[in-house]
Amino acid sequence: MKSFSLTKSFQIPIILIFLISMIFRLYGLNWDGGHHLHPDERFLTMVTQDIYWPRSVSSYLNPALSPLNPYNVGYPFFVYGMFPLILVKFISDLITLDHFSYNNITLVGRVLAATFDVGTLLVVYLIARRTFSSRIALFSALFYGLSVLPIQLSHFFTVDPVMVFFLVLSFFLLLIFLDGRRQCFSSIGLGISFGLSVASKISAGYFLAIIGLGWLVVFLRTRKVLPTVLGAVLFVFFSYSTLRLADPRMFTSPSFFDPRPNPQFLANLRELQALNNRFAFFPPSIQWIPTNPIWFPFMNIVLWGFGLPLGIFVVLGLVASLRFFTMTILLPRRIPRILKLWPEHLGHLFLLTWVLFLFISQGIQFVKTLRYFYPIYPFFVILAAWFFDNTVVRRSSHIVVIGFCVIFVIYPVSFLSIYSRPHSRVMASEWIYANIPTGSVLSCEHWDDCLPLGASGRSNALYQTEVLPLFDPDTPEKWRKINRQLENVDYLILSSNRVWGSIPKVPEKFPLTSQFYQDLFAGKLYFKKVFDLTSYPTIPLLNIPIPDDSSEEAFTVYDHPRVIIFQRMQ
Is the Cβ–Cβ distance between 29 and 156 less than 8 Å? Predict the structure, then answer.
C-alpha cells in the first residue's frame, strides 16, 4: 500500500472539498428553531444536561457512583455510548455562559457531529489514497462530502457521527497493520480508536470481525507468531482500557481486572431487541413490518442516502468490485491467492468485505433504518470513486468529468434547501395561530409531536388538545374512546407521516385504524383538508421539488415532515 503524502497538485482541491463539505454540514444547523424536534436529540440533550462531573477519578470509574452514569441520574434505560455525551458536556462547559443551557447543548452536539463527519471525510481520503491513488482519494472525499445521509446526520446531535469517525479511523489503522510494518504502533492506535467507537455506540462491535480477519490474514501471510500475537495483545489491552476510561458505565465494577459487562446495560439491550420485532406493538417498529430484507435498505441507500446519480455509481462500484474479486479468486478456485494479493488489492478486498458484511448483517434485521448503514457509507464512496476513475475519468475529457461533478452536486444542494426555510411544523404552527380560533380542540396523534409549537410569544395552551391513542392495538374499547374524542375535536392535526404512513401498510394488524385513515384521506369522514404543507428538497434555480415520501420514515420525519390539518365540517 502507498504511504501518504499530499502532493501540491491535490492540496487545493482537497482543501476546497473540505471547506464545501464543512459548509454543507453546518448550514442551517439550528434547523428546528430551538424547538428540539428530533426525539433522540431531546433525550441525549436531557441526559447531557443532567449528568455532572464527579469529584474524583475513582468515583468516575465506579459505575455505581459516577454522576456521569445516566443510570445514577434518573435514566434507567440508556443504550447509547457515553463518550460523545461526555465530550459535548465538556465543550459546553468551556464555551457556554448560562451553564449547560438546554438549547446550547443541542447546538454544541450538532457542531460536534458535523466536525467529526468532516473528520471522517479526511480519513476516507487517507484510506483511498493508501489503497488506490491520490486521484481516486480526491473523488472519494468529494463523493463523501456530497453524500446526503452524512450531511443530514451531521445536523443532529446523535452519537453516530462520532462512532463512524473512529470506526473509519480504525479501518485506516488496520490497513497499516496489514502492511506488516509498524505493527506495534498500528495495533495500539487501532485499539484506542476501536475502543472509542464502541464507547460511542455498541454496534461498532460489528467491526471486530474485520479486525479479526485482518489478524488472520497477516499471520497466514507472514507465518510470524510473535509479532501477530503481540499485535493482538496490544490491540485487546488498549481497546479494553480505552473503553473502560471512555464509558465505565458499560462494566459491572470499577476494577480494571473485572471485564464483566453491566447487567443493567445488557438488560437495556435485551429490552430494545424485544421491542424491535414484528409481534410487538411498539410504535417505531410498526413501519418495518411490511419491508423486505436487503431490498428495502438497498433502495433507500441508493435513492435517498446517496441520491441519483451518485447512488448509481455506488452500485456500479460495488458490482465491479465483486466481479473483479470473483474473476480473480473465486472462479479459478484459488482462495489461497488472497494471501498473495498485491497490497492495494488486499485493501480493496477488505473494503468490499466490510461493506458486504455490515450491509447483509443489518439488511436482514427487522429494523433496517438508513442510520444503521451509515458506517459503510465512507467505504461505499471509495468503491464508487474507484469505478468512476476507471470508467469515466480515464476515458473522458476534463469537461465531461466536471459535468458529472456538477450533476453530483444537484441532489445534496437540493437537500440543503430544507434548512433554508422554517421547519414545516413551525410554519404549520404559525398557520394555526393565524387561522384557528383560540379555545378550539385540536387532535394530536400519540407518539408524535403535538402542534402548535410555541411561537412569537404564543403557546399551545391557547388550545385544547386530545391525544388519540392510534398506535394501541385495534380493539372495540380503543375505538369507543377515540370516537368519543373525535366528537369533541375541531381540527385533526397530522404533524408528520409517523402514524398514517405506517399503520395503513399493515391492515392485518390495525384493520380499524387503517380504514380510518383511508376514509379520512378519501373525504368520507366529517373532516375536510384545509392545510397540507411539504418541505421537499428543491432543485435550486429551477425550483423543482424532489418528493421523498417513499423514503423511510426517519429520513423525513425529523427535519422536513409533511404536515396535514383537517377541519371538522359543520
Answer: no
Q: What is d(CA 297, CA 287) in angstroms, rounded to the nearest whole number?
A: 13
**For residue 452, is the peptide bond before it cis, meaning its omega torsion is within 30 degrees of 0?**
yes
Residues 552, 292 contacting (CB under 8 angstroms): no
Contact criterion met (CB below 8 Å) for 277 and 366 = yes
pLDDT of residue 346: 87
Name, in order, each residue with C-beta under 8 angstroms of 221's C-beta and a sequence gap of 6 or more: 180, 339
Q: What's the pLDDT score for residue 268?
A: 97
pLDDT digits (tens, 9 = 90+) for 212-235: 999 988 888 878 888 888 999 999
Residue pair 447/283 in contact (Cβ under 8 Å)? The answer is: yes
What's the mean pLDDT in 30-50? 96
254 Cβ neighbours under 8 A, 6+ residues apart:
58, 61, 62, 63, 248
DSSP assignment of 248-301 equals GGGBSSS-TT--PBPHHHHHHHHHHHHHSSTTS--HHHHTTTTPPTTHHHHHHI
**pLDDT top residue among 527 and 396:** 527
Q: Where along the chain do its domains lie? A: 8-417, 424-568
The C-alpha atoms of residue 326 and residue 322 are separated, in whole angstroms, by: 6
Write down the pTM of the prediction: 0.94
Confidence of residue 4 (pLDDT cuts 50, 70, 90): very low
> CA 19, 25, 30: angle at the middle one, nearest 5?
130
pLDDT in tens, 446-476: 999 999 999 778 888 999 999 999 999 999 9
Name 398's Cβ contacts closer than 8 Å, sequence gap at least 6.
none
Which stretches within 372-423 are classed as H helix? 377-391, 398-416
CA 470 to chain centroid, in Å, comes to 28
Residue 557 near residue 498 (C-beta atoms within 8 A): yes
Among residues 119, 100, 109, 235, the alpha carbon closest in space to that of 173 is found at 235
Angle between helices 225-246 and 183-200 (to 10 degrees): 30
